[in-house]
Write a structure and sequence with these properties.
370 residues; 15 helices; 11 strands; 6-stranded mixed β-sheet; binds adenosine-5'-diphosphate; alpha/beta
């Protein structure tokens, strides 16, 4: 079964072709709509098709059994991957106010693909859907309730595809059924989020109404006192830009790439060390909070660029958690081993590579099977 996974952004299009669970080919078209790039999403998809044909992995889009689209925001309507029809397209469009940058770009991918490959089933896999199992007490903000009723202001959470994928993998590594497993999953990439997963379901997550909340990220602040945003605006600063693009690790030390920051920290750079300390402090905060929400956990799971590769961050984040049953083995951690917990660690500490494209392909196939 040939499935094409598409991640359609405003200026880039990433694609990956699978046969079942086997990856066949992947590529990206960058700078859409910019000088020297593809003119629009149609031209970008035509370039992708040409590259796939050239690679010998696909005769044409018509040969596809399905297309799986990453869609950022599914609001409260989409609680699982969904076969796309006109009503679904309209529903994704209606959610644009909640994801003004992402949903329009995702829709362009969907509508263009539908035009280029009529008759090929398309499935939307939402970043938010996995977290729709959160209870009201976890997703409501303590602000006037009308804002929830009238403007859908609540915690949604993102990175759902990744949290779902690593939770399944972690349960398999533990030799337990997902239904009986309690996990704290930590997706630490450029964006970062933590999730409390009970029996395969999200019960709490650190991102909120938008992906700005929660952990410290590359350029995003994560949790702050909201008065700070108000203060920025009063001072004539653009709070949106300050908090999304100029904060996080970058705001603290000028760099947002953890590899570079680690090098600086190792060389004794104070700002780099400070930034990593704040980053790790916030991770520890969420590990503790989610152990409490879950009533203990079988494992803490690190994933994505930083989680999979940075022994330094994992070590710092787990420091001092021995009293909660979390003990990291230094040698295993340094080797990026799949299980980095010490023998006497009550809670396992796992490093699980995420694969959001594979999860989208798997979910797409599942929707097709009905
Ligand atoms: P995205 O959210 O864009 O998918 P990734 O999951 O690829 O991002 O994560 C990117 C982050 O991972 C960057 O901060 C990068 O520095 C960090 N990273 C990648 N490899 C390493 C490594 N070997 N050691 C430390 N950090 C790493």
């Amino acid at each position: 079964m040939k499935i094409l996974v598409l991640n359609s952004g405003s200026s880039s299009l990433k694609y990956k072709l699978f046969d079942g669970e086997t990856p066949l080919y992947e590529g990206a078209v960058e700078r859409i709509g910019e000088a020297g790039g593809a003119r629009d999403h149609r031209e970008a998809l035509e370039e992708a098709e040409a590259a796939l044909v050239e690679s010998g992995t696909l005769a044409s889009f018509a040969e596809l059994d399905a297309v799986g689209h990453r869609v950022v925001h599914g609001g409260e309507r989409f609680v699982e991957p969904t076969r796309i029809d006109e009503a679904v397209v309209e529903a994704i469009r209606a959610l644009i106010p909640l994801a003004p940058l992402h949903n329009p770009a995702n829709l362009q991918g969907i509508e263009t693909m539908a035009a280029l490959a009529p008759g090929v089933p398309q499935v939307a896999v939402f970043d938010t859907a996995f977290h729709q199992t959160m209870e009201e007490a976890a997703y409501l903000y303590a602000i006037p309730y009308e804002l929830y009723e009238e403007q859908s202001v609540r915690r949604y959470g993102f990175h759902g595809t990744s949290h779902a994928f690593v939770a399944k993998k972690a349960a398999a590594m533990l030799g337990k059924s997902l239904d009986e497993t309690k996990l704290v999953t930590l997706h630490l990439g450029n964006g970062a989020s933590a999730c409390a997963v009970k029996g395969g379901k999200s019960v709490d997550t650190s991102m909120g109404f938008t992906p700005l909340a929660g952990l410290v990220m590359g350029t995003r602040s994560g949790d702050i006192d909201p008065e700070i945003a108000i203060l920025m605006q009063k001072k004539g600063l653009d709070a949106d830009e300050m908090l999304n693009k100029r904060s996080g690790l970058k705001g603290l030390c000028g760099d947002n790439d953890v590899r570079a920051i680690q090098k600086r920290a190792e060389a004794g750079d104070t700002a780099a060390r400070r930034a990593l300390a704040v980053y790790a402090h916030r991770i520890r905060h969420y590990i503790g909070a989610y152990l409490a929400q879950l009533g203990g956990a079988d494992a803490v799971v690190f994933t994505a660029g930083v989680g999979e590769h940075s022994a330094m961050v994992r070590k710092m984040a787990c420091e001092g958690l021995e009293g909660l049953g979390i003990v990291v083995d230094e040698a295993k951690n340094a080797a990026n081993a799949p299980d980095i917990s010490a023998e006497d660690s009550k809670v396992r500490v796992l490093v699980v590579p995420t694969d959001e494209e594979l999860e989208i392909a798997t979910q797409t196939a599942k929707v097709l099977r009905g």
